[in-house]
Amino acid sequence: MPDGSLAFRRWLFLLLTLSATAAAVAKLWSVLQADGLTLGETLFLFLFAILFGWIASAFWLALFGAVARLEGLRLLPLIPAPRGDGDLKSRTAILMPVYNEDVARVFASVQAIHDSVRDAGERGFDFYILSDSTDPDHWISEEMAWQQLRRALPDANIFYRHRHRNAGRKSGNIQDFCENWGSLYDYMVVLDADSLMTGETLGALARLMDANPRAGLIQAPAQLVGRHSLFARIQQFAASVYGPTFTAGLAALQGPDGNYWGHNAIIRMRAFLQHGGLPQLPGKPPFGGEIMSHDFVEAAFLRRAGWDIWLAPDLGGSFEEPPPSIYDYLKRDRRWAQGNLQHARILIAQGIRLPSRLHMAMGIMSYLASPIWLLMLVVSALSLVPYGAPAQAGDHAALLQLAAATVILLYAPKLLALGMILREPLAVRAHGGIGALLRSAFWESLFAILFAPVVMLAHSWYVLTILLGIATGWGPQARNDRALPLGFVIRRYWPHTAVGMGGAYLLWRFAPDDLAWYTPLLAGLLLAIPLVRLTSSLRLGMAAARRGLFLIPSETVKLPVLERAHRLLAQPAQETRNFRRLVLDDAGVQSLHLTLLQESPPPRDTPPEKLAELAAAAKRRDTAGFSRADWIALLSDPNSIASASSA
Amino acid sequence: MDSEASSFQSGLTGLVLANVPPRSPAAMPAGAIIAWTPTRLALAVGAWLMEETQLPASLVVTTPKRRA
Prior knowledge:
A: alpha/beta, 7-stranded mixed β-sheet, 3-stranded mixed β-sheet, 26 helices, B: 68 residues, 1 helix
């Protein structure tokens, strides 16, 4: 049961959110019911209630976060374990699951984190690169990069394992590790390919787990860093300025009923082994099959078993990179939308605790909000509701009040968060000074206004396709900054522009008085193509940085782990080459590959006659017609490699 | 295969191994996701009602047996 103060905060939050929503709905109802409620108006009122409640909850969350910070509330009320206790007694595995990622980037990150752990004087951390890579060149390149890293760090425990069947995707990858080596460790820290964490933070997390035996998981929120495109810089700035207030609010309301965001968190191995296993959901994707967004479910299972799940909003030293462009952001969102909507099956299952259900419900709502908004706009624009020019003067005033309340709820959290930053001179300097901070906040808000309708349309489409049963895969994310070609952007985003033009025309033709209300929405849709193209630009991103826009602390106050990762990445990498052929032609690469195959033998599911055929063709170096599956089959069989090689 | 073989292409000479520790298998049971059915819901509501209406032992009033 939550302690008294936590329960009080939760009830107060619920009361404030419901009151604000009830007041707004009552106000709108008073306008609409004047001449009797039509079906359209009832629908509009219902949708308005949901959306207003949603933005009211975000407003109160930010306010709770601001008050928590001002009052100095202990947001992570765990028993601290002071550093002076000496070496850690516990052992922690740091896991880097990879799936056809940029090899140089992965290994630069691992080395940077290792170096940070070493420089912090911490011991007891082993590193595992857990590869699910299905591309043969990535596979072999990873092996070579791992070998080079082991030579550079001969005393480090850095291990590499390639899984030959990626059953269960990332969660299956982690499960495979847990089932084979989990019992050797007290804790594990799961990273993403673009994650970075400092040695100090890793040590602090392990000590917190040591001192608090009921803690099952501690999530360290990741600051967005490391990218240079304009879109990424805006995201990094927004997360840096607004994020701390929101995470403080979350921590103040969650207590030990926190959530897991999939990476940059420490997990108690015993708890995860016993309760972290995921079932297959009945039915087919998108709602059945493997659980795609596994993190929320793993947290819910741990919590169900009585383990505490904490958020550590002030720990610092935890980083990840944002998507480099709007296209990559929305591509990731397609997967996340499916993963979150799939949680509906678990949300209503037995035994899940209410806070865990609320986490999943909020995740679902973060995607459902868009089609709800779109539907509300359509209902309004069809003049089923007199949105812009009501008959009574009092009605007009009431609608203006509602519009003002909506704007306040949307923007007050940002102003609150900005205010919290302005209170701290160091934080202001870290964001480039007051002038730069305020200018950046202004431009970020303008961007957000234009970006919102693009997201609304995209999310609405995702929800529709998911409800129609169209599943998506979980391919690798783009990890490199690159400007999107204009032709590519036009092909992807002309529907947004078309919808904007169509909407503008219909409003001008049939409801010209309402056009002003829709201007921000239409502007975002009409400008979708240039918005996506320009914000993907590195040149514009760097130009903004030179003008002091969207600066974040990692750019003004040096971060050793980030700098180290970037320096390692800047070193001459392995030349791009046909890595798969190296296994056949290079004795060293072949020896390494065969030794690693011995450690993690792949399943023997290719028919012998097929293997013989592949080996014979490879021996002749007649491999141009090989498919990816052919290469994987060949590279998975030591006998075939031996018979085909010239090394 | 000679693990000390040198290669001018990859530059990989003298393998550094000591890779993954020996496996220590431990199965991870899959968590249960039990959907509500009308029967389960009725039983759960009934159990909750029983719990809510059951008096704590200290409040149960007993009368001593009268001796004949």
